[in-house]
Automatic annotation (TrEMBL):
This is N-acetylglucosamine-6-phosphate deacetylase. Residues 70-397 form the Amidohydrolase-related domain. CDD domains: NagA. NCBIfam families: nagA. The gene is nagA. PANTHER family: N-ACETYLGLUCOSAMINE-6-PHOSPHATE DEACETYLASE.
Amino acid sequence: MAAHPGARGTARPATHHPHPATADRPTVLTGATVVLPTGTVDNGRLAVDGTRITATAPENAHVIDATGHYVVPGFVDLHNHGGGGASFTSGSVDDILKGIHTHRLHGTTTLVASTVTGDMDSLARRAGLLSELAEQGEIAGIHFEGPFISPCRKGAHSEELLRDPDPAQVRKLIDAARGRAKMVTLATELPGGLDSVRLLADHGVIAAVGHTDATYEQTVEAIDAGATVATHLFNAMPPVGHRSPGPITALLEDERITVELINDGTHLHPAALQLAFHHAGAHRVAFITDAMDAAGFGDGRYWLGPLEVEVADGVARLLADGTIAGSTLTLDRAFQRAVTVDGLSVEDAVTALSATPARLLGLDDTIGSLEPGKSADLVLLDSAFELKGVMRRGEWVVGPQLG
């Protein structure tokens, strides 16, 4: 939700003077290291005409020398609660658009708006508002994180508002989203959990296992019922035990599951991230932000649903008990950390930030990779993997900073 009137955000999203729009003139990026589905091309070339990537560009194209830089696909965030001081759960339309724009400035060209636990009527109304933004192309859909989660693993969700995943209540949210619901996070071991997974699968909505206290065996049942995502793997679920392997083991070992990871250096130890990549591979990992209002905004006090959050040194925690409350992560930082700290290849980072989430959303025919005919969504990074430009649908959101 939007920062409480008493919030003490200290920073603001960066502003940039846009580069001339490619909708008026085709553009060619030359000299860059271009990361393609087939591999990385040094001294590569990428042409954009209108809103699409093209195989060739007309002679009147504007040529940009991007030597010494990487060109990668725009980032795709499956799980994001807000940014720029604004919340997708409770902010106004203008607030939501501000949050979306904040993440676009950091390379996220496609975003699924996530809600937090609330009462059912409020969530249904929020779904209606967010569905309008999805219809306008501002977001790629809606993710409901709560209220159908375990009180044992509630994280930063209000326990008083939690409920079992009754399929009729799950259906209420799906209907309120008017075809724009993309994902629902469930503690599938709760009464109604498996039936709700089946309902979601039947309606083409991703059933995600998360905020769960399930056993290994219960998690296998959920996967067999149709669950396909692990909500922020490792976080808000039992740890791996040698006699009780728990949900993490079941989720990592099954090829049907895509695992979300929050790569901010707070939610996961680097060894846990490496474990996930070793067992799942980049094709089954989706980096997410799980961002809250403070992302791209600054330290201070905020509200996450009815719960007050203190953000200090970029880490968000509930004021009441210190529980981690989402993140202030942006996906450009997740990319940079993946390559420079975690030791992932650039290709694997691109897969986890763009190709895998695009495929999961069923949008890989238009986004997620740099191929002719696809949307001209791209990010420019320098040799240190600092963001230097963002293009969305052929328009520069952040004009190229190549000096």
